[in-house]
Design goal:
Elements (H helix, E strand, L loop, with lengths): L1 H13 L18 E5 L2 E4 H13 L6 H23 L6 H19 L2 H8 L3 H27 L6 H10 L7 E2 L2 E9 L3 H20 L4 H8 L3 H4 L8 E2 L5 H8 L10 E3 L2 E11 L2 E9 L5 H19 L5 H8 L3 H4 L14 E3 L5 H7 L11 E4 L8 E12 L2 E2 L6 H27 L2 E3 L21
Antiparallel strand pairs: 1-2, 1-13, 3-12, 4-9, 4-11, 5-8, 6-7, 7-8, 10-11
Helix pairs in contact: 2-3, 3-6, 4-5, 4-6, 6-16, 7-16
Amino acid sequence: MRILRSTILACAVLSVCLPATAQRYSNGLIDKAAAVVGNEVIMISDIEGEVNMMRAQGLATDRNSRCEVLENIMQAKLFLMQARLDSLNVNRDMVEAELTNRMDFFKTRLGGEQEAADYFGMPLYKLRQQWRTQLEDNSLMQQEQQQVATQIPEVTPYDVQQYIDTVDADQLPTIPVKYKMSQICVYPDREAAATAVKERLLSLRERIINGEKFATLARLYSEDPGTARRGGELGMASRSTYWPQFSDAAMSLKPGTISQIVETPDGYHIIEVIDKKGDMFNARHILLKPSYTADDREKAFARLDSLAALIDTTELTFDLAARLYSEDPATRTNGGQMSDPNTGSAYFEIDQIKPQDYIAVQDLEVGQVSTPIESLDNEGRDGNLVYKIIRLDKIIPAHTATLENDYTELLEGVRNQKQMEAISDFISKKIDQTHITIDPIFKDCEFSNAKWSEHLKED
């Protein structure tokens, strides 16, 4: 069992020599208290549990990882104790949602319910109980941390100016180059392309029903590169891993039967279920995406060229052309003005711009309109094909932040700094006020807050 090997390794790395009176894990490994914070005891098994979770997520771990995990747990205990004193309430809905996500993630990552139970060394119902308690504590801890952070006085322009005046010029943040752009979009004939791809899938489905191997056809035709080479096999995973339409179709199938065509934001699928266990399933699928012809491209480019020519001769403004002719609902009503879907900002840093769009605008002067290009929209997982022209509206060159031009960024930076200072001060104050003992096996740890080391027990 992996839990056994990893924990033995952990004990070797920590050079733990445990007394015979120490408690034992359920699998026989010796456990003991790593630290006591107030009335909260942190066990070696608590640390190893976090390390095992890191490993299950594919993260590298070493001795320093255990030092960091211990310090993080001790800090969390300080906030947790204060949260209880402040009578904060657990956010039950968030806890249950996070618990479900965590269980689904590890069952999928480790290959199933039994594999997850074997890895963590306990039945899943016990693991769920343990994680629910941890997440309830995390909910209280995070609320208390947020209270501490938000109790700082409101940051004023004076604070920002004082920050600028007191730090060296080379320590001021650098604001990267930013672009403001507008677009006019034209989509290909998606209905015709969808009909064509459905006909191809129906033909493949009929071939499978007539005796051809699903896996063979998936290798030849599926447009999901991650699974095509495995004959379309996805591996055992929780239904929450996939689009709801895909999961609902798969869970309704008996093993060995072939689904009708299933549409998701990724494209169109046919599915064969291999195995089902509870809310998990393993299936094969063949994914086909709508494809477009050179004729589609030529028609769209000709239309966009005509609009660009009218805009160039001032017979039509770009904003009005976008409102009248663009097929992108997200930007059409704003005269084509693009915005970052994550932040809502009208300004894009280079790494926030789609590569195709950046190639189109990188050599433009402000106010110029690009030639027609192929690009992707923001729908689905990877985006749908779209043809567009882009106007470069403004460029803000990279520069050192100034109060006049970058007040919002500086204000946020000063606020974050003050919040971090408040949290650090809270931790230092609580360390001084709280009974804390740390086992000497952690004497070589370099904690980020040196005050922890003052509470190490002697060997």
